[in-house]
Amino acid sequence: MHKERVAIFIDGSNFYYSTAKKGKKVKFNKLANELVGDRELVNVYYYGAPLDIKTDAKKYWAHHRFLNMLKEIPKFKVILCNLKKIKSGGDFVYIVKGDDVKLSNNLLMGAVDDLYDTAIVVSGDEDFVDSIKIVRERYKKKVENAYFSRSSSSNLRKACDSTINLNKILKRFVDEE
Question: In the sheet where 5-11 sits, what is the strand order?
């Protein structure tokens, strides 16, 4: 009998606002090991967008180094999306575009191609509910939701087979600085 194969799908911007923006430094290899446990890790997909170098070159290069560090971790795949600049009042805000669609597509195609037995969606965004239902019902895959309490949709948690509250295990994969 083979080990249960697990793929992890990380919604980068959702994750960032729950960790890095609050000064927490995540050890992504430890996070993956914590989520997978004694099962077999197939891949970790991290969805994000490169920052705008014209807005803040220092932040751009720091983020660039971060993405390159992720790419160096075995079985990690960084999926780049677009960063859209939108005028809001007198300021500009940046929104990551395409990340939800790419995550959903990889989740669905991974099920279609039988690349995993269990998917772990690391997000609080309920936009993934329909894709999760298809993966569970049509392809008989298990889906777990790893989430942070403050950024989590109850609809997303309910759509999954099980949930992991990351706030409860944060110390196991974060360096408090």
Answer: 76-80, 40-48, 5-11, 118-122, 142-147, 162-165
- Residue 165, phi then psi, degrees to nearest 5: -80, 110
Handedness of CA 169, 74, 15, 68 (dihedral sign): positive
Q: What would the pLDDT profile of 36-92 be if each residue is shown by its tens digit? A: 999 999 999 999 999 989 888 999 999 999 999 999 999 999 999 999 988 888 888
Give dist(CA 17, CA 117) in Å, integer: 29
Domain 5-176 superfamily per CATH: 5'-nuclease (3.40.50.1010)
Q: What is the pTM of this model?
A: 0.94
Beta bridge partners of 84: 95
The amino acid at residue 65 is R
Distance CA 157, CA 163 (A): 6
Contact (Cβ atoms closer than 8 angstroms) between residue 32 and residue 43: no
